[in-house]
Amino acid sequence: MKRQLLLAALLVICAGSASAQLKDKYVVARESNFDGSVTTAVMTEKDFRAREKELRKEGFMATRARMMAGKAWDRDADKEGRFPASLIKTRRVTKAGRTYRERDEAENYAEKLNIQADKREAERKKAEERRDTRRLDSQNQTGKTSGRNVQSASYKASQKRLKERRKERLTTEKFRNDERDADRSTRQADAITIYEAQLEIIKNPPPKEGATR
After folding, report:
1. Beta-carbon neighbour count of residue 119 at 10 Å?
2. Which residues pair with 92 in a beta bridge?
C-alpha cells in the first residue's frame, strides 16, 4: 500500500514538473523596422523563435527586393532621382533581458524599456534646444573694445539689428533642416512602400500564366 502511495505521489510530482516545463515562457522582443525605428513587444519564446526565423529568411531576400524596388521606382514617372535604397533598413528582432515565466513580469520590463526610450528622446530634444541657444548666445556676444565702453545710440541700434539678423539666420537654418528631414521622411516612406510590395512578390510569387492551381 505504501509503495502504491509513493508511486502515485511520484506520478503527481512528475506530472506537475512536466506541466511547468510545457507552460509558455515569455520574452521581450525588440524589433527594428524598415525605417530604423524600434518597437517593443512581449511574446512567447516559441513565437519569438518563429519571428526570428522569418526575419532571418527575409534578410536573405533583401538584396533582390531592393533591386526590384529600384526598377519599379524608375518606371514611376512621379519619382525623382535614384531609388533611395540606403534609407531602407533590414528588419531584425532581438531578445531584451531574460526569459520570464509570467507574462506580467515581461510586460513590466517592456514598459520600463519604453519609458527609458522616451526619456532618451526627450533628453535628445533638450540637448538640441540647448545647443541652439548656446549658438545664439555665442553670436550675440560682443568683443571687448580696448577698455572703452561704447554706449552710443547708433552702436546699440546696430547691435540690436545684428542680433535680429543672427536670430533670423538660425531660424532659417532650422527651417531648412526641418524641411530636409521632412523630404527625407517622405522619400523613405515611398521607398519602403515599393520595397514591401516587391518583397511580398518574392515571398508569394504570382502563379505563372497557364499554370493551374
Report:
1. 10
2. 32
Rounded Cα–Cα distance for residues 27 and 49 (Å): 10
112's enclosing H/E stretch is helix 103-140
pLDDT above 90 coverage of the chain, percent: 53
Q: Which amino acid is at 127?
A: A
> Could you write out the DSSP letters of every residue in 46-69?
HHHHHHHHHHHHHHHHHHHHHHHH
| Side-chain half-sphere exposure of 35, counting CA atoms within 13 A | 12
Look at phi and psi of residue 37 and say left if phi exceeds 0, alpha if psi is from -120 to 50, else beta.
beta
Residue located via cell numbers 568683443: 143
Per-residue pLDDT tens for 63-106? 999 999 999 999 999 998 999 999 999 999 999 999 999 999 99
Q: Do the beta carbons of residue 198 and residue 83 sit within 8 Å?
A: no
**pLDDT one-digit tens code per residue, 11-50:** 555 545 444 456 899 999 999 999 999 999 999 999 999 9
Stated pTM of the model: 0.69
Burial per residue of 42-54, b for 16 or more beta-carbon CB atoms within 10 angstroms, e otherwise: bbbeeebeebbee
Residue of higher predicted confidence among 134 and 51: 51
Instruction: Give the contacts of 85 (CB within 8 A, at least 6 positions apart).
Output: 66, 69, 70, 191
Yes or no: say if 30 and 112 are a contact pair by the CB < 8 Å rule.
Answer: no
CA distance 67 to 51: 25
